[in-house]
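Figure S7 source data.
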Amino acid sequence: MLASLPPIVDVYKLAKQNKTLQGDLVLDKMPRIARLLYSNQGRVTVKLSFTREYGISILTGKVSAEIELICQRCLEAMPFSVVLDIKFGFRNKHERKAANRNEFTDDMDILIIDDGNIQLSDIIEDELILALPLVATHEFDSCSASQFIRKKRLVDNGDKTAKKLDATSKPFADLKNKMKR
Ligand SMILES: [Zn+2]
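Tokens for the predicted zinc ion complex:
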């Protein structure tokens, strides 16, 4: 397991030193995304390189996340993996003139901060949230709700056999308890 990253880093200092940071970020420290997850058991690994280019400080990196979303159909855990490439520019007020907008491609956001301190988990969390599916659901056939939904469709169509089955199997019997978690 990789070392945990420091929560706050000085991006200007790291860029001057051409540093690369590699490590894990803890989901507990990302409350906005944690709210959307089935559990905090997932893993977020990052490799971040800091450089100076175009007269400003640049952060490029790769974020790999293996997390558990909540299937919106059955409310069970749904494994989700994603790998993201990220790129940000950072500059202070004095670097504003030096950084000619035309020199940049459109592949990064430029953030203006006076001191170089950034909260790593904040930036990574934003990027991860943008990468999540709008509505997370299992593939229909591997979703535990699919059997129930199929049965319900049969019931709606007036199938008596399905009705009988429905009385004996209660796939959502403990749903209330799950939702309280
Ligand atoms: Zn499901």
